[in-house]
Amino acid sequence: MEKNRLNKKDLGNFLTILKKHYSNIISPGLDDKNSPVFRLINSAQEIVLDKITPIKPPKEFLFPQSEELMTYDKNDSYTPTRIVEKTKFAIFGARPCDIKAIEYNNLFFGNKFNDPYYQSKRENLLLIGISCEFPSSSCFCTTMGISPVESSGSDLFLTNLGTDYLVEWVSDIGKAIQQFFAEILTEAKPEDEKMKIKIEETTRSKLVEEINLTEIKGKIIQTYDKEDLWKNYSEVCIACGACTFNCPTCTCFDVQEKMESLENGTRYRTWDSCQFYDFCLHASGHNPRGTKMQRLRQRILHKYQYSIDQLNQWSCTGCGRCIRSCPVGINTRSILKDIKEELHG
Amino acid sequence: MISEKISQQVKNLIQQEFKTGDVILSYQDSGTPGVMTPIFIHSKEDIGKILINSLCVNNLAVYLSSFFQSEYKDIKQKGRIIITAKPCDAKSVVQMISDEQIPNEKILLIVFECDGVTTSRLIKEKVNQEFSKIDIKDGKYIVTLQDKQSQSIQAEEVRVSKCKDGSLCDLPTYYDYYFVGTEKSSKIDQHSKVMTETPLLQERLSRTEFKKIVDTELEKCIRCYACRNICPACFCSEKCIIDKPKLAVPFLDKEVNLANNILFHMIRFNHVAPNCTECGECERVCPQEIKLSIFYHYFNRLVKKEFGFVSGKSDLERQKLLNYRLGEELV
Amino acid sequence: MAKQDLIYLFLCRADKRKKLLTEIEKKFPNIQTINIHCAGRFNPILAFKLLQQKAAGVILLGCDTGDCHYREGNLFSERRIFLARETLHGFGMDRNRLQALWYNPKQIAPVLESLETFTKYISNLASKGDSI
């Protein structure tokens, strides 16, 4: 893999060159309450990388909350909304947990049916990753087999070496644009690899806990009938959906139509949550997941069992946003520990 | 600070009162530092898991109505429901009894005196760092930071905003047990009325200026419905008009934009206004941190002034929109 | 019709108010009438939805105290409308866009007078460019 060094003072120049090829740059900045949030930035001063990851993941830039799919007219029949996504954009400063989540979403939206609305945005995206040194107390990426400094899945990846960044050109797209930055890049040094390992160890020591899941991978389905295990958590759950809205790999959506008049209207899709009562409600009135226990069990099994069955990858990346958003304090790590105890005594 | 002595006394009482078939609603540690989570206890061995301290900020009254609604067929409750509550939560329970949503003979309400609670978000803002553990000792929070150092914070520095006003924790007239005796170091000033007597934004600003604030706040709403689900006064639960899937045309479009967001909040506050007890849970759980207090303070003062009704005080007096009879004064 | 002119009128006992309805149709082309059996049936959230999306004003016309065919419907409604007006104010909208009138089916002239004042008020707001 090609590697270079970039002096932190040259970050402004880096972004200026980047802006010539990718007109919108999205990066973590601070909102009016001093909390980090992913948003469009204009200069390097607005970038904030020394806080925990923003609570809203960058999935809204590839999969917005409300999106128009087509319009219909009594005289014209159905007209699909033209996908005019030509703006190239870059996400600067995504951590490995978010990069792996985007990798999973690419698999999901390209699996059996190629979703054109998602793919058109993804083709115009440049994903620049950054090593993670500030985990939150809810993070558990190492439990899911992800290292806080791994670069796979991104187009280029930056690691903080002190005064410089180590830049790794990972994908073909990344390698193709390396030439544009030739003036501000310097040679990478052999000791940079050791620095990367050191950062990984420091970040790992800051995590609150790490659970070994290798023994139960693929076997979690055996807890399906253990209703007491699930009821401990579902009794307390209020089925609000905040965990699904903030999860970077939750992609369920509802398709609805809106009448503008009796003659025409639009069809749109919007985020939906498997924790809502009417998510699985059939037109006959029967609801196969009418109780909270069934819905919570479904969510955990989807993230940790069914995604392996279907796409051979954990759907959860251990970013901890579900734990941070839960209003009643349900901890996904506790659920995993309970499952492990149930299966192995 | 809610002292350890009170936590132990409550557990002893529950040990005595518990009979098979009862269910206990209380608090336990969640595994995330600084966050306490509710627990439902069905058997005597688990009573040891109960832990009550100043991080217990949840209002447990929200779980009560589902025991008595026929839609929830998987919950069959034969015995009583024993619930431990702070005075502000007890008001929600009493208001539900007065609205005839839960029968008072099936509830055992245990209230403990409280000196203010805090959330992990407020502590994080104060120390400006992530932490791995919080201990409570002598009226202070001892926070172990990520770099293994520790910092100590006084309780009054990180109280939730509703706890700054002493008049919001007045006890209702109905309860079964009440435990007193908090440590002297951090008493709430019972005479402070900073929340209930500050002029409202609706009165201080002109209508156009106020509308701009409403627009900026509600633009952030993602319609996750966490505020509606956590509210004890929103007891329509699965029959809520927003969710009604059997209607041919939905009353509120699922599309997320400013006009629909304003409509959702107007409907919710209009339905909840007479039974709202200002518990502040809706504002605490919002993932986007919208300042819902500008709405619920307005409605509570309105109902008190115009209808002369104080919600959550008595279990026998019904709220004014339900008890009108011919011959009464209208407003 | 544009949003800033349209007014919705909900009225009870339409069978007894036929003369009033013909007068309204002649004099006020921007008022749309909807018949309900009793003013007590009116749910304020209908007014919220109309004011957000389609209309500039909503009026509820019910019977005077003591004259309600269903005994107390109009009185329940009066408390509800009061709370609904204050809800509009609490969200920064003009509370006078929602109004309740209490007149018996026999009274026609006072109703037309009140409707005249209301339409003038709404068109005044529209000409000032006030849309909330």
Note down, in words, how this protein is organized:
The complex is a heterotrimer of chains A (about 350), B (about 325) and C (about 130). Chain A is α+β, with helices and mostly antiparallel strands. In chain A, the strands form 2 sheets. Chain A has an 8-stranded mixed sheet with strand order 3-2-6-7-8-9-1-10. Chain A starts with a strand and ends with a helix. Chain A has helices at about 10-20, 95-110, 115-120, 170-175, 190-205, 225-235, 240-245, 290-310, 320-325, 330-345, and strands at about 1-5, 25-30, 35-40, 65-75, 75-80, 90-95, 125-130, 155-160, 165-170, 185, 255-260, 265-270. In chain A, a hairpin with a 3-residue loop joins strand 8 and strand 9 (about 165-170). Chain A contains 10 helices and 12 strands. Chain B has helices spanning about 5-15, 85-100, 120-125, 195, 200-205, 205-220, 225-230, 260-270, 280-285, 295-305; strands at about 25-30, 35-40, 80-85, 105-110, 130-135, 140-145, 150-155, 175-180. Chain C has about 130 residues and is an alpha/beta fold. Helices cover about 45% and strands about 15% of the residues of chain C. Chain C has 4 helices and 4 strands, in the order E-H-E-H-E-H-E-H. Chain C has a 4-stranded parallel sheet with strand order 2-1-3-4, sandwiched between helices. Chain C is globular. The model of chain C has no long low-confidence stretch (mean pLDDT about 85). The chains are: A alpha+beta (about 350), B alpha/beta (about 325), C alpha/beta (about 130).
- Biggest beta-sheet profile of chain B: 5 strands, mixed
Largest interface: A-B, 46 and 41 residues
Percentage of residues in helical conformation of chain A: 25-40%
Number of separate domains of chain A? 2
The fraction of residues in strands of chain A falls at 15-25%
Brief descriptors of the model:
heterotrimer, B: 331 residues, alpha/beta, five-stranded mixed sheet, three-stranded antiparallel sheet, 10 helices, 29% helix, 14% strand, globular, C: 132 residues, 4 helices, 44% helix
